[in-house]
């Protein structure tokens, strides 16, 4: 993944030559509202090497869906295909947190340490509030071996040890570890396994086909993910090692690896989730927390001047993409570059899921997400009646 400006330049330079080409026609199936600029979508799929994609455009009562070819599998996705949506999971996590706040079960200003085993003795958690974890300003940075710690079941204390880099609330630092700790908080508050907590409070009430623990899924229904660069045909991944572990009993000491990016879901379910958040949490919320996720807490700064963050929600302010603010989230993992966004002034929605994509970025925003949003909001849906 091109994580620095220099690597990003190099990645973009060699991508057209070394990444596999998407076969024409790239769009294999469409249904719903006709897509007027299908040729423009085709061009974007080839430009960004988007493999095995599922797309949804939703405006008012109209909805269009498109499904694209894959270079690494014979599978052509449809509305029932599961995708591991990476950091888009953070929206579901934030919605669960806000629902608990709405029910009086969780205070955004509560100390996170109070919900974690031996949290009072972990100095890195001093003064870290629930709202800090949701806003990525907890002062915690991700350890380089976070994935191996999770897979081996090591306690959260090892992951946070020495990872306090700033005082809570003072600096924005995107932290999967911080969002993962929210899962431990949920298990402590509800005394439920994390999977059951998500099912009872978010997934089932919204009618979602979704899970954090993919061991129960039919693997033939999951789109495998692969990197476009470097591309290795035999390296496709359907379920991560962590995703194969059952979440059948609560363990707040070790379940900090799921709520940051482990959700598997399909296109209609993701639409239900994003629509709920767009609509101030209806039908889940009844109190005064409807706009909490959209509350602007941090700017990304010079690296990404168009990006801000709320509580589990990314904000894009870029007139070249949309005349309005875009809310939602993107997800990078193992080669996918997913996106789920709505346009504030129209409420129009774009969902983009795939099994592999160019990971090139402009700042911290995926170039594929930027260009697909520009096409969907400023071109395609702008012409719908």
Question: Can you characterise this structure?
Answer:
Helix 3 crosses helix 8. The protein has a single domain, classed as DD-peptidase/beta-lactamase superfamily (Beta-lactamase). The protein is an alpha+beta fold. It has 10 helices and 14 strands. The mean pLDDT is about 95. The chain has helices at about 5-20, 40-45, 90-100, 130-135, 145-150, 155-160, 175-190, 195-205, 265-280, 365-380; strands at about 25-30, 55-60, 60-70, 85, 210, 265, 300, 305-310, 315, 325-335, 335-345, 350-355, 360, 365. The chain has a 9-stranded antiparallel sheet, with helices on both faces. It is globular.
What is shown here, in short?
This protein is of the alpha+beta class.
Structural class by SSE content = alpha+beta
| CATH architecture descriptor text | 3-Layer(aba) Sandwich
Count of all domains: 1
The level of helicity is 25-40%
- Kindly, what is the distance between the CA atoms of the first and last residues, rounded to a whole number of angstroms? 40 Å
Element string (H = helix, E = strand): HEHEEEHHHHHHEEHEEEEEEEEH
List the helices and strands and how they pair.
Elements: H1 5-18, E1 27-32, H2 38-47, E2 54-59, E3 62-68, E4 83-84, H3 89-102, H4 130-135, H5 146-151, H6 156-160, H7 176-190, H8 194-203, E5 210-211, E6 264-265, H9 267-278, E7 298-299, E8 307-309, E9 314-316, E10 326-333, E11 336-343, E12 349-353, E13 361-362, E14 365-366, H10 367-380
Antiparallel strand pairs: 1-3, 2-3, 2-12, 4-6, 5-6, 7-8, 8-9, 9-10, 10-11, 11-12, 13-14
């Amino acid at each position: 993944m091109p994580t620095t400006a220099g690597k990003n330049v190099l990645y973009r330079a060699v991508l057209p030559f070394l990444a596999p080409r998407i076969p024409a026609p790239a769009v294999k199936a469409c249904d719903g509202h006709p897509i007027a600029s299908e040729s423009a979508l085709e061009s974007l799929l080839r430009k960004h090497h988007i493999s095995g994609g599922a797309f949804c455009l939703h405006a008012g009562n109209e909805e269009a869906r498109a499904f694209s070819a894959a270079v690494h599998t014979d599978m052509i996705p449809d509305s029932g295909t599961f995708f591991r949506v990476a950091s888009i999971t953070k929206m579901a996590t934030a919605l669960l947190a806000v629902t608990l706040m709405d029910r009086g079960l969780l205070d955004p200003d509560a100390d996170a340490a109070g919900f974690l085993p031996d949290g009072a003795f972990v100095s890195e958690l001093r003064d870290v509030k629930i709202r800090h974890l949701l806003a990525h300003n907890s002062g915690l940075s991700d350890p380089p071996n976070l994935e191996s710690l999770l897979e081996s079941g090591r306690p959260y204390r090892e992951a946070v040890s020495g990872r306090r880099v700033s005082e809570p609330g003072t600096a924005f630092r995107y932290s999967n570890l911080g969002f993962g700790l929210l899962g431990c908080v949920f298990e402590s508050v509800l005394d439920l396994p994390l999977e059951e907590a998500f099912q009872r409070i978010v997934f089932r009430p919204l009618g979602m086909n979704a899970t954090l623990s993919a061991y129960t899924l039919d693997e033939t229904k999951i789109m495998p993910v692969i990197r476009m660069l470097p591309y290795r045909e035999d390296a496709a991944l359907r379920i991560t090692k962590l995703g194969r572990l059952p979440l059948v009993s609560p363990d707040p000491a070790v379940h900090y690896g799921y709520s940051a990016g482990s959700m598997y879901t399909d296109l209609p379910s993701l639409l239900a989730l994003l629509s709920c958040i767009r609509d101030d949490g209806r039908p889940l919320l009844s109190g005064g927390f409807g706009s909490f996720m959209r509350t602007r807490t941090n700017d990304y700064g010079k690296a990404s001047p168009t990006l801000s963050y709320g509580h589990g929600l990314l904000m894009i302010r870029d007139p070249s993409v949309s005349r309005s603010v875009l809310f939602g989230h993107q997800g990078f993992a193992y080669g996918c570059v997913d996106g789920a966004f709505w346009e504030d002034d129209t409420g129009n929605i774009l969902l983009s899921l795939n099994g592999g994509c160019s990971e090139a970025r402009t700042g911290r925003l995926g170039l594929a997400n930027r260009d697909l949003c520009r096409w969907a909001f400023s071109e395609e849906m702008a012409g719908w009646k």
